[in-house]
Amino acid sequence: MSSDISTEVVRTATNRDVLIGLAALDPLPRRASTNPELEFAAFKTALEGRKVGQIVVAYVDLTSAVRAIVQGSLGHAYHPSPTELRMQCDAKRAERIEEIAKAARRRAAEQEQASYRSTVEKTAESKARAAAVYAEFCKSNAQARLELATKNFHSQPRQALLSPLPVDAHLPLRQVGEATPPIAKAAGPPDPKTVCGRAKPDPAPV
Known about the structure:
With 206 residues, this protein is an all-alpha fold. Among the domains are: 15-115, no CATH class; 120-152. It has six helices and two strands; from the N terminus they run ααααααββ. The chain has a two-stranded antiparallel sheet. A hairpin with a 2-residue loop joins β1 (194-195) and β2 (198-199). α1 (15-25) packs parallel to α3 (59-70), α2 packs parallel to α4 (82-116) and α3 packs across α4 (82-116). The relative contact order is 0.08.
């Protein structure tokens, strides 16, 4: 029995399918011993519809329900009752229908997306034309940005363009007309041309 829920066209289960399903459930312990003929009749009735003797449960739902019961879907380890088997068959049918609906929605979404995709193959000429258009766009965009920057520059106030540079607070400020202080010489041996810091007089001419 397959564990996958089929999304294809299914057929209705037959009496032989019911017997095979009950045989797969037979290893499960029973709460009480029953007559095999009466048990088959009860399970067959549980799988029928409004019309007596006509099974309405699909074969794929029956096999999926039997597999789920063996795997413990009922919450107990005993042989299922006819009602429990029918409830499991209905649950698997609901899952199968939902799977079909999901597949249909997925196909519709894929078809809608495909309709928006371009199916025209691009030639070398069309690629070159697209590249030229893109290059022209980049050139015009760069020119527009340059013009905007130039316009913003000329629109600034003249006072802002001529604003003085910031003054360093660590440098001493001098008043207008004040002489520049002399640069101190490094300490060293006295200059022979000076006496006590003063220049020696030139010798008198003979």
